[in-house]
């Protein structure tokens, strides 16, 4: 294991401009479905279908709010993740605070949901970091390519861990290479 590239703390959050269309889809869909639902006959098949759709879009919009408030912090000890008020970029983590020390990182997966790996399509990527806290509790941190910390956090994980001890597959290595993180070196890689 090497030292973290972040001797001073660094904090990252999701930029509003990268998530605005998700909010728009959620609010628009809730408005339209809610309007139609208010006119439907309760208990009818249409009402049940619309209610299911309305619940699905409530979950979608809540997930968008969660992604918008996800804060990732890096320092010399490791990664801290949790939800903060998205209107206060410098605010502290309020919910679901998880701290993962560099020595506790065990696995890294980077998925790309497109047939072509293109660095300009980061929004279609998702990263998942798994490991153990100092007290042995399993921790998982998941964030998408729309998060401003996507590249810096992945680069920090790669720099701060021993690649031979990290469980990572070839697809994740290729995805990291596609966004400019140099990963090739001595293998073999665990998967």
Q: What composes the largest sheet?
A: 4 strands, antiparallel
Low confidence ranges: 186-191
Helix and strand run: EHHEEEEEEHH
Query: What spatial order of strands do you see in the largest sheet?
Result: 1-2-3-4
What is the helical fraction, as a range of percent? 25-40%
Mean pLDDT: 78
What gap, in angstroms, lies between the N and C termini?
A: 19 Å
Radius of gyration equals: 20 Å
User: Could you say which structural class the secondary elements and strand pairing correspond to?
Assistant: alpha+beta
DSSP summary, beta strand count: 7
Could you please describe the fold and organization of this structure?
The chain is built from 4 helices and 7 strands. It is α+β, with helices and mostly antiparallel strands. It has 2 domains: 17-67; 73-85 and 96-178. Helix 1 (20-39) packs antiparallel against helix 2. It starts with 9 loop residues before the first strand and ends in a 13-residue tail after the last helix. Residues 186-191 have low confidence and may be disordered.
């Amino acid at each position: 294991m090497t030292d973290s590239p972040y001797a001073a703390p660094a904090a990252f959050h999701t930029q509003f401009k990268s998530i605005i269309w998700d909010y728009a889809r959620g609010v628009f869909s809730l408005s339209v479905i809610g309007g139609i639902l208010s006119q439907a006959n309760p208990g009818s098949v249409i009402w049940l279908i619309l209610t299911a759709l309305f619940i699905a879009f409530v979950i979608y919009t809540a997930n968008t709010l969660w992604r918008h408030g996800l804060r990732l912090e890096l320092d010399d000890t490791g990664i801290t993740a949790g939800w903060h008020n998205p209107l206060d970029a410098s605010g502290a983590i309020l919910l679901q605070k998880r701290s993962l020390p560099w020595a506790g990182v065990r696995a890294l997966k980077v998925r790309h949901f497109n047939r072509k790996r293109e660095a300009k399509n980061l929004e279609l990527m998702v990263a998942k970091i798994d490991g153990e806290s100092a007290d042995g509790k399993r921790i998982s941190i998941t964030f998408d390519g729309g998060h401003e910390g996507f590249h810096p956090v992945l680069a920090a994980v790669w720099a701060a861990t021993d690649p031979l001890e990290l469980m990572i597959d070839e697809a994740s290595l290729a995805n990291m290479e596609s966004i400019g993180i140099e990963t090739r070196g001595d293998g073999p890689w665990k998967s």
